[in-house]
Amino acid sequence: MLCALQLNFAAREVAIKLVYYGPALSGKTTNLKALHELTKADSRGRLMTLETKDDRTLFFDMLPLVFKADTEGGAMNLRVKVFTVPGQVVHASTRRLVLQGADGVAFIADSQIAETENNAASFLDLRTNLKELGRSMRDVPLVIQFNKRDLPNVRSDAEIDDLARRGKEPVFKASAVHGQGVMESFFGLLDRAWRKLDVEHDLRQKLGIEPDDFLAKAAASLGYPGRARELCSAYVGGRKVGA
User: Fold this and answer.
1) What is the pTM of this model?
2) What is the separation of C-alpha 106 from the centre of its chain, rounded to a whole number of angstroms?
3) How many angstroms separate the CA atoms of 203 and 12, rounded?
4) CB of 180 within 8 A of CB of 145?
5) From 196's CA, which of 3, 143, 188, 227 has a CA 20 to 30 Å away?
C-alpha cells in the first residue's frame, strides 16, 4: 500500500501528506488559506499557490504545518503537508500525481444545489484515480466537507444529514471563506489519518505517543489547546476508524 508517511527514527521526525480534493471552485484553496490564517504563525510554513488567470488553482497548494510533541522517547517533530488538487476536468493527470501517496483525503463538496452533479463526478474521479494508484476508498482515511453553507440555494441541513447517515465518512459543514468548519474538517482528517497510520505502523509503540495525546498536542501547537476532541468530532454521520 502506498502512503507518504515518512519516519526518521534517528531524528524522531514524522511527515504526513493530506490532500484536499473536489470539483473546481468548491473551496479547496479557500480552505487552505483559512487554515493558514487560523493557525499559529510559528507552526505554519509559507502557503504556495499556483493559479491561472481565471483564479483557479492550476497545480496545487502546499501548506506545511510543523509542531513538536514531547513523548516518552523524547521530542518528536511532525510535519503535515497539505495539498490541493486542480478541480478542472483537463487536469486529471495532475490530480492523480498530487493524490499519490496521500495519507488522508478531504473531499470538498460545493453545497449549492446546482453543483450536485459536479460533486458526484469529482467523487467518482477520486475513486478512479485511487484505483489507478492501486488503492481504494476503503483504505484511505477520508472526510467530506460540504462547503459554502453561507450561500443561498444550498442543499438543506436535513438532506446533508441524511446523506451522512447513509455513508461511512464523517461529514463536516463549512463556510471556508468565513473560516467556519475549516479547523474541524482538518482535525477530523488528521485524527483519522493518524489512527490509520498508527494501526499500520504501530506509532504508539515506536514514538511513545497515544493517538488521543497526539491529537491534543497537535491542537495545542497549532493554537487550539484543549479543543482537539471538540474540533474533530464536529461532524454528522461517519464511523470510527476501523469500523
Assistant:
1) 0.90
2) 4
3) 11
4) no
5) 227
Give the side-chain half-sphere CA count within 13 A for 83: 23
Report the distance separating Cα 112 and Cα 152, nearest Å: 8
How many C-beta atoms surround the C-beta of residue 209 within 10 A? Answer: 24
Any domain includes 160 = yes
Q: Which domain holds residue 12?
A: 6-232
Q: Any idea what the CATH number is for the domain that residue 216 is in?
A: 3.40.50.300
Location of C-alpha cell 506545511: 64
DSSP bridge pairs for 108: 145
> Which three three-digit cell numbers place residue 220?
495545542
Closest CA to 82 of 108, 103, 96, 67: 103
d(CA 186, CA 222): 11
Q: What is the pLDDT of residues 120-133, one digit of tens each?
A: 999 999 999 999 99
